[in-house]
Amino acid sequence: MARTGNPSRPVPGSALDSLTFALDRTSPVPLYHQLAQQLEAAVEQGALAPGNLLGNEVDLSVRLGLSRPTVRQAIQSLVDKGLLVRRRGVGTQVVHSQVRRPLELSSLYDDLESAGQAPTTRILREERIPATADVAAALAITEGAEVTVLERLRCAHGRPVAFLRNHLPASLLELGTERLEATGLYRIMRSAGITLHSARQSIGARGATAQEAALLEETAGAALLTMRRTAYDHTGRPVEYGSHVYRASRYAFDFQLLVRP
To answer: How far apart are CA 26 and CA 6, in angstroms?
Structure first.
């Protein structure tokens, strides 16, 4: 971590043992914010792993040489982001880092698994229905034609990250709850010989509905990231139309921007 001012001593007896915090007491940036930023960086970089204990606020304030309200405010800001959790009789514990997903044609399940986020899936719906106008347009089929609709809750380290709704041509492939719970949709497609080639995708944001908030363990109106995607196989055939929402407190898209010559 970058150091400014006089660094605090390492914190013994907790997951912070090997970390040094650089708190600049002359900076206009509040100390609680400096501490929160450095704790968040430690979580995101893996220096603090899921399950690690930080100790209680009293111990932390003494060990870091900060007031208890300062430590409490720093911890609360990361609890609000879903990175830390307070456990009675245990202290403050790291839950997980924010999911940062590259903006490319990939499965959320695969991305979470690669990042060590222990993905799990809860199947909420799997059935065949007539295609609505927007689904038919996305999949280049006739309105009212039969499609398979999937609704899933994707979790990381046991906590919900995203509510996923996907529509597929009904004749595309056989799915089943057991397969969908065990892996990602794109992996199932690849195993069935479907070669994914490209996608059209749009990203937005809005407040959570009451139903979404209940599923995602958020409050109604909480910020959600939205994503709509139509995926195409190597022949240019639309094979999947997804409409997903993600917890903004736990999820981010990473972009690489290039200068056009």
So the answer is: 10
Residue 95 structure tokens: 């839950």
Question: So what's the pLDDT on residue 15?
Answer: 64
What angle, 0 to 180 degrees and rounded to 10, lies between the N-to-C axes of helices 68-80 and 31-44? 40
Distance CA 202, CA 141 (A): 21
CATH second-level architecture of 99-254? 3-Layer(aba) Sandwich (3.40)
**DSSP alpha helices (H): ranges in the chain?**
31-44, 57-64, 68-80, 108-114, 133-139, 177-182, 185-191, 210-216
Which 3 state secondary structure label does DSSP give 217? coil
Half-sphere exposure of residue 180: CA atoms within 13 angstroms, side-chain side:
20
Whether 21 contacts 38, CB under 8 Å: yes
Q: Quick one: pLDDT at residue 198? A: 85
* Low-confidence residues in the chain, pLDDT < 50: 1-13, 103
- Looking at domain 6-94, its CATH architecture is Orthogonal Bundle (1.10)
How far is residue 214's CA from residue 208's CA, in Å, rounded to a whole number? Answer: 9
Q: Residue 26: which region, alpha, beta or left (left: phi > 0; alpha: psi -120 to 50)? A: alpha
Interatomic CA distance for residues 8 and 63, integer angstroms: 9
pLDDT of residue 17: 64
Q: Where are the domains of the chain?
A: 6-94, 99-254
